[in-house]
């Protein structure tokens, strides 16, 4: 079945229809209409999958994607046009261009944590750039996968865009095919498998992966505001956000104050009984829930730590000074557990950050500009914020992606259009003049040849 879908997409791509920008716009508009029409159904699906609050689904899934669609529709004509660049004297007289050419058939593999946004946002870029696409939603959020499938079936001919539902086995069957581009969002571990499969066919990739994101709070920080913004970014989606703070590094002089402010803000957001709050999601599956509970074994819990097996509920939990070699600090947490680690010197910060690979995000709460810049300059990470968390994803003009083990490439807005396009260099040469110097026999004096660099 997968081979047939892909063959149909290759055939459709060959008809050249996707090269027509008005065709792409029509497709994106239809997608937009269908998402608007089914916005409540999408919210219901995410609620059924892990009790995601409707406000969070609207803000971080449907409205996010609709904003991306609106922006793409507004700009697509300009992005798709060949871009003229300055010509070099070497080729005078000529006019030089970058043409944006679609790759062909794109495979998009999505994770479960923002299951709608992370399947549809890359799809917008793929369609806008003139590709065909197969989307594989996550099997961990089956209700959302079903809605994605319904939307795509309602909008597209499968020869243009199709959904293939399934788990690891299906994902591996998809990866065995030869795609023209693969866009993967998920764990670093699976990212390596995807990269290996892509390498067999020299298929270009974007890998949007995870990491252990530090959040540094120094002695000059506005602690109350820091706590408010950390709590929001961490417990949104029950901590299942790739760019959420994974752990806090706080200067020892302000640790107690920060812990008190974090506790106060958790209660302000979710009430005394978080389990009853309509604004707090559940852990997505029993497997993930059990994994998180295991991480808490033997730890010093400062706040929370409550759980309920019946619906994978784990409350917002603060952990005091976990050891670096503990389960909690071994890898990405990806749940509502926040380790609080105090530091004395910048060397202590370095010990932590350099212990893990390059993270997807890093945050600094500080009023010391020099310290802010030092962290930005010293450490390599996907992106981040000063005096806030998570918000870097909301600006469509900023690239969203990791570096090193947190990923390869980035997207959103125009960058999405660009990654799904081959940038083809074209020089249009005039015929009315021909400089004789480049042709053998080379009679150009060597003295002149040594100045050729000025003509490039
Ligand atoms: P995952 O890697 O387990 O799964 C992602 C996708 O890959 C799913 O569709 C799944 O079916 C498929 N898959 C799983 N195992 C596979 C295998 N062995 N071979 C082929 N395909 C396989 O990730 P997840 O648990 O769905 O998502 C959580 C991870 O994703 C976290 O690490 C998180 O940081 C990361 N993430 C990154 C971003 C980002 O934008 N950088 C966004 C969201 C999540």
Annotation keywords:
alpha/beta; Aldehyde Dehydrogenase, Chain A, domain 1; Aldehyde Dehydrogenase, Chain A, domain 2; seven-stranded mixed sheet; 15 helices; globular; binds nicotinamide-adenine-dinucleotide
Q: Could you explain how this protein is built, in words?
A:
With 456 residues, the protein is α/β, with parallel strands linked by helices. The protein has 2 domains: 2-209 and 405-423, Aldehyde Dehydrogenase, Chain A, domain 1 (3-Layer(aba) Sandwich); 214-401, Aldehyde Dehydrogenase, Chain A, domain 2 (3-Layer(aba) Sandwich). Helices cover 41% and strands 18% of the residues. The protein contains 15 helices and 18 strands. It has helices spanning 2-14, 21-37, 39-50, 54-80, 117-128, 142-155, 168-176, 188-200, 223-235, 255-270, 286-296, 346-353, 369-378, 413-419, 446-449, and strands at residues 83-85, 94-102, 105-109, 132-136, 161-163, 181-185, 205-208, 214-217, 247-251, 300-303, 307-308, 313-314, 317-320, 337-343, 361-365, 383-386, 407-408, 421-429. The strands form 4 sheets. Strands 10-13-14-9-8-15-16 form a 7-stranded mixed sheet. It has a 6-stranded mixed sheet with strand order 5-4-3-6-7-17, sandwiched between helices. Helix 4 (54-80) packs parallel to helix 5 (117-128) and helix 4 (54-80) packs across helix 14. It is globular. The termini are far apart. The model has no long low-confidence stretch (mean pLDDT 97).
């Amino acid at each position: 079945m997968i081979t047939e879908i892909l063959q149909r997409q290759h055939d459709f791509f060959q008809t050249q229809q996707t090269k027509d920008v008005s065709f792409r716009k029509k497709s994106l508009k239809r997608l937009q209409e269908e998402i608007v029409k089914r916005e409540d159904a999408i919210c219901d699906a995410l609620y059924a999958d892990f009790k995601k609050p409707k406000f969070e689904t609207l803000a971080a899934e449907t409205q996010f994607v609709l904003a991306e669609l609106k922006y793409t529709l507004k700009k697509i004509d300009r992005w798709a046009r060949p871009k003229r660049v300055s010509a070099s004297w070497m080729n005078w007289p000529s006019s030089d261009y970058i043409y944006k050419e679609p790759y062909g058939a794109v495979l998009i593999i999505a994770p479960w944590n923002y299951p709608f946004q992370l399947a549809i946002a890359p799809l917008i870029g793929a369609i806008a750039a003139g590709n065909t696409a197969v989307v594989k939603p996550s099997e961990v959020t089956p209700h959302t996968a079903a809605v994605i499938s319904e939307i795509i079936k309602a909008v597209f001919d499968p020869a243009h865009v199709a959904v293939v539902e399934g788990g690891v086995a299906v994902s591996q069957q998809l990866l065995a095919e030869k795609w023209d581009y693969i866009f993967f969002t998920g764990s670093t571990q699976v990212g390596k498998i995807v990269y290996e499969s892509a390498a067999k066919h020299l298929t270009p990739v974007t890998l949007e992966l995870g990491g252990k994101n530090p959040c540094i709070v120094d002695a000059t920080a506005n602690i109350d505001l820091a706590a408010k913004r950390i709590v929001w970014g961490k417990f949104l989606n029950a901590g299942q956000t790739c760019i959420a703070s994974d752990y806090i590094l706080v200067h020892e002089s302000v640790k107690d104050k920060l812990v008190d402010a974090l506790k106060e803000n958790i209660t302000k957001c979710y009430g005394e009984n978080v389990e009853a709050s309509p604004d707090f999601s559940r852990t997505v599956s029993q497997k993930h829930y059990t994994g998180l509970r295991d991480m808490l074994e033997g730890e010093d819990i400062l706040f929370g730590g409550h759980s309920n097996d019946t619906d994978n509920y784990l409350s917002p939990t603060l952990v005091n000074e976990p050891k670096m070699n503990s389960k909690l600090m071994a890898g990405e947490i990806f749940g509502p557990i926040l380790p609080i680690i105090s530091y004395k010197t910048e060397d202590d910060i370095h010990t932590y950050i350099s212990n893990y690979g390059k993270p997807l995000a890093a945050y600094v709460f500080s009023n010391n500009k020099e310290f802010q810049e030092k962290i930005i300059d010293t450490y390599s990470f996907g992106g981040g914020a000063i005096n806030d968390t998570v918000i870097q994803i909301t600006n469509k003009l900023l690239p969203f992606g990791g570096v090193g083990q947190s990923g390869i490439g980035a997207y959103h807005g125009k960058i999405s259009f660009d990654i799904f396009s081959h940038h083809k260099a074209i020089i249009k040469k005039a015929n009315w003049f021909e400089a004789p110097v480049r042709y053998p026999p080379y009679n150009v004096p060597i003295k002149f040849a040594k100045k050729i660099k000025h003509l490039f």
